[in-house]
Model the fold of this input.
Amino acid sequence: MTRVVVIAGAGPAGLTAALELLRRSDCLPIVFDLDHQVGGISKTVNYRGNRMDLGGHRFFSKSDWVMDWWQEILPVRDSADTTEPVTLGYQNKTREFVAACAAIADDGREMLVRPRLSRIYYRRRFFDYPLKLDATTFANLGWVEAARLGASYMAAKAMPRRPEATLEDFFVNRFGDRLFLIIFKASTEKVWGVPCVEISAEWGAQRVKGLSITSALKHAFSAALGRMNDVAQKRVETSLIERFLYPRLGPGQMWEEVARRVIEAGGRIELRHAVVGIDAERGAVHRVAVENLETGHTQWINCDALVSTMPVQQLVEQLKPGNIELSRIARGLPYRDFMTAGLVVRRMQGPTPKDNWIYIQEPDVQLGRLQIFNNWSPDLVADPTTVSLGLEYFCREGDELWSLPDPDFLRLAAAELEKIGMIRRDDVVDGTVVRVPKAYPAYFGEYRHMGRIREFLGQFGNLYPVGRNGMHRYNNQDHSMLAARAAVDCIIGASQDKDAIWAINTEDDYHEDTGRSKAAESTEGSARLRAIA
Done:
């Protein structure tokens, strides 16, 4: 190994870059992460045997490369109660995972094929998400409200808002102002803490592109004809997918296995270490300062390249731009922070819903989304006679909600879930709190000047910002992985196009792995997109 690549962050982007460098080059990746475990926001939190998935991670991508990469790390089987060979339809191909199934009994490293169900809880009733134009929806809404929704949608199609500048414009143009008010407005503002008119339409373009009432109707028609058996489901918007892959022990199992392979191949991963300084001049990064957060000791590491997933604020500060305005913009880039109350309950009121997660649209509670971990994988739950829940709240670091002591926050969460008729507080048997700072890069405020930040970072030829925080972009796992692969292409000389990194998650369609050019491969997009949260 002749070249050293420092990687700041051991999440999906950082670990993908590390393993790809080891597979494709003579580079030595050295990964530093603040946390005591790998995975970033895709880690699995283990609380007394109950495993929590922060934010919910469906392993679905329209990228063949990502799907194959995941399946090579963790083999696939179709259910949790059989070791029979698995045959899956994928990209109009039939694939069997015979060898994978033989290994499952030994170590439990596997991916399950899981059914998808996400619904909206509104007016103390369940609505399909996306909404279906069926008898259940009409009964829940009432026929008068349903007629108003239809009229509003037709009006939006006849006279769309132009220019489409804000997130409100984006939603109204696709769903009508009535459905926007009922479904999207309250939940989106609950997540971001600002009105939809203050959020850029770019957020919608990256998070719910392609999703509309028309696409939902087409999806329902295809499903009725039995055309939804392809696990990859490349023509389906992600909010409409029926099945997805999921590691048996949660998303962290994927990244723990990747980390194991990185170390086994000769790479280094240093946890509880932070990059605290960057020595850069003449358009290149030469070394980085790394602090051991346990001992307080700091050392300088010489490097040939830096792959950064640290927040853009910190990256710009450490590069010392010498431009007051640029520093101000970087410091002002907004984020939304995230808290999860993990509750274990004896039972729920009524039958336990089959949903992976439920969007809580009720205006009288702060709760934004509810996960039912039993439905992601039975192995996430320590006691199968209980129900393990994740109650997700969106806040700002240091605000009143964030600052609540853990016992008070758990009481609040249990009380809100009881208020909307989901549980009884007396059935709560245990609970824990997880706080995630800078979970969601936001698309308002100083974000409008992000182009200047990108231009500044582009001056350093061997610096590669990737990942959600590294690019201040609301990316998912597969977007982050594809950006990391594009960065590796540049580092090893397979591509000179650093713009390809920023092209990820900006196109409506995926670029195929045709082999026609490295640039085309590097700019492969992704659309494993979650709507709203």
